[in-house]
Model the fold of this input.
Amino acid sequence: MSTLHEPGEEYRGAAEVVDDQHDDGILVEVHLRGHFEPNDGRFHWYGRIDADEALSGRYRSGATVALQTPHGIAAGRIADVDPWGRFRVTGLGAPPF
Done:
């Protein structure tokens, strides 16, 4: 797995999806971006989690999870699934990259 890291803007690479309900995390590939939103004064991060059978079996749209990358960990919410099976994920505050 290759990792592209541009602090504060974008992360593409390995991540682990974890939550309070399960002892084990799920290793996934993600593509995340973010920006500071001056209207609410918060950092908004978002992106896609690559299609993963274990992830699809465990989570549904609306689930709250944490994403952990080599650069940090942050809580986010899983949203819609696109036609390729990738989950959208969003979060507020310090991102996991």
Observations:
- Residues 1-7 have pLDDT under 50 and may be disordered.
